[in-house]
Amino acid sequence: MRTLYIITKVITYPGAFLKGFWEHVTCRILKIKVLDNNYHAFDFHGGHVKHEDAATPAKTFLLALLPNIMQQLFGWIFVAAASPLLLFGLRGPSDSYFFWLYAVALFFGLSLLCNSFAQWEDAKHQWRMFYGKNAQASLAAKILLAPCNAWFFAGAWLERTGISTLVLFGGAVLAIVLY
């Protein structure tokens, strides 16, 4: 799995780099100490920054949420920009001279979407802060944020295993070819 993860980070380099950037900005906003800001490391920190663990449940939640929002927002904007390619496939208006522009927008959008979740260690820390043995979150926060926390945890696992990249790129290729 480690090799597949590193391959997906290399393939989706623009999204991995921007994910590290947004995570770094979020750490600065939340006053979480950044230990290493190498966004393009070829290990499990690829596309992430090494930072100290967040001290409160609110900070752990925001550390997962804010970079995710930015990646999702820009990713869907770029995928929408490539919609003629997705809607008409290779037989429609995408045969025009805009084909490569659509293809680049689609690649950039998918690379952003493939790198939108928190790092696996951050997701586990967030889960411990909310639901672990020594959880610090209130009962109301545990109940209200349970769907979001489960989404972040599952997304971090999918990104860690490389499944998110395979599914998104495979779905895009099928949409283009089969339509």
List the helices and strands and how they pair.
Elements: H1 2-11, H2 13-30, E1 34-36, E2 50-51, H3 57-81, H4 83-88, H5 99-114, H6 120-131, H7 139-144, H8 146-161, H9 163-178
Antiparallel strand pairs: 1-2
Helix pairs in contact: 2-3, 2-5, 3-5, 3-6, 5-9, 6-8
Backbone CA Rg: 18 Å
Structural class: mainly alpha
Number of strands: 2
Number of domains: 1
Helical content (DSSP H or I, runs of 4+): 55-70%
Count of helices?
Answer: 9
Indicate the overall shape.
elongated
Please give the alpha-carbon distance between the first and last residues: 32 Å
What does this entry look like structurally?
By secondary structure, this protein is mainly alpha-helical. It has one domain. It is 70% helix and 3% strand. It has 9 helices and 2 strands, in the order ααββααααααα. A two-stranded antiparallel ribbon has the order 1-2. The longest helix is centred in the middle third of the chain and has 25 residues, at 57-81. It is elongated. The mean pLDDT is 84.
List keywords for this structure.
elongated, 9 helices, mainly alpha, two-stranded antiparallel ribbon, 179 residues
Short description:
It contains nine helices and two strands; from the N terminus they run ααββααααααα.
